[in-house]
Design brief:
The protein is mostly helical and 292 residues long. The protein has one domain. 72% of the residues lie in helices and 2% in strands. The chain has eleven helices and two strands. The protein has helices at residues 2-32, 39-55, 60-81, 91-113, 138-157, 161-171, 173-178, 183-209, 219-229, 234-259, 263-278, and strands at 129-131, 134-136. It has a two-stranded antiparallel sheet. A hairpin with a 2-residue loop joins β1 and β2. It is globular.
């Protein structure tokens, strides 16, 4: 029973960290209606930036704010020189643009900074917390707390005046323009906010598994989280992350020894397929009905 509780608790915390990786998806989609397939490599690049700043002698607590500024500027740059060129184009072309950005960034980071894993030390001991026979990863615990903090902040943000404007842009670009909302600026801000969440996810996951190209593979569980929870729902990020994390921990914990490993990806894939077939807009996503 202690093994089950260990899998459950660590799956719960991992799910919160998946939610942190998926938060950038929702911030962009809820603010601009764009599905950003480059979120995985944004997390990777954010982690590389923090590591690079620390390699120049900055403490990690100074490197993180510096990384936030740089990633926010990256978001503004992506909107100004990439997405703005796609105004009026079919949505599938915008999605393909973000996929192309994903592939480009995945090569640039390791290509310039090396493919060997780098370590981000945020001062958390590697020794686990022990409660009876249950071992809990300290970094997962801190990462879960950071995820809850940012998800809560995002909920509050979309209740502000600026957050309301961003939601209006997501609903209808033309109507937003007609009432004086700068759609371009709104989309740029949403990408900047996604860069901020990428810094948080990159630092947390980078301290867990090191900084290399594999951080970009967080795109897969992040997609599962937003499909399950809903592309436009911040609450869905929390609930979807917990479901993906717990099932992706408990089920492989018992099946991997029989299957030889790799069942976590199978569980995640099944979650994506079942959700799309049964509830394609997610648990908390908005169901849009269009007349054809």
């Amino acid at each position: 029973m202690s093994y089950f509780f260990e899998l459950l608790i660590n799956g719960f915390l991992t799910g919160l960290m998946y939610g942190l990786a998926a938060l950038g998806f929702v911030l962009i989609y809820k603010s601009s209606g764009v599905v950003n397939l480059a979120q995985g490599t944004m997390i990777m690049i954010a982690a590389y930036i923090v590591w690079l700043l620390t390699s120049f002698g900055l403490s990690v607590w100074l490197a993180i704010p510096g990384g936030i500024v740089l990633m926010f500027c990256f978001g503004l740059f992506a909107e100004r020189f990439l997405l703005r060129k796609m105004v009026g184009q079919p949505i599938i072309m915008i999605v393909m643009l973000t996929l192309g950005l994903e592939i480009l960034l995945r090569g640039i980071g390791p290509g310039f900074l090396g493919a060997a894993p780098k370590q981000i030390d945020i001062g958390i001991p590697f020794t686990p917390l022990i409660f009876g026979d249950v071992f809990i990863n300290r970094t997962y615990l801190i990462g879960g707390a950071v995820a809850l903090l940012l998800i809560g902040a995002s909920l509050l943000f979309f209740r502000t005046r600026l957050g309301t404007k961003l939601r209006a842009v997501s609903d209808d670009h033309v109507s937003s323009w007609s009432v004086g909302i700068s759609v371009e600026r709104a989309i740029g801000i949403s990408w900047g906010l996604a860069g901020l969440s990428a810094i948080a996810a990159g630092v947390v996951w980078g301290s867990v598994q090191g900084v290399d190209w594999t951080l970009s593979t967080l795109l897969f569980p992040a997609i599962a989280v937003v499909i399950l929870g809903g592309l436009d729902s911040v609450v869905g990020v929390l609930v979807g992350g917990l479901i993906v994390g717990v099932l992706g921990s408990v089920i492989p914990g018992y099946l991997d020894e029989f299957a030889g490993g790799g069942t976590r990806d199978v569980v995640t894939s099944i979650l994506i397929l079942v959700t799309i077939m049964i509830r394609p807009y997610g648990i908390f996503g908005r169901e849009d009905i269009e007349r054809v």
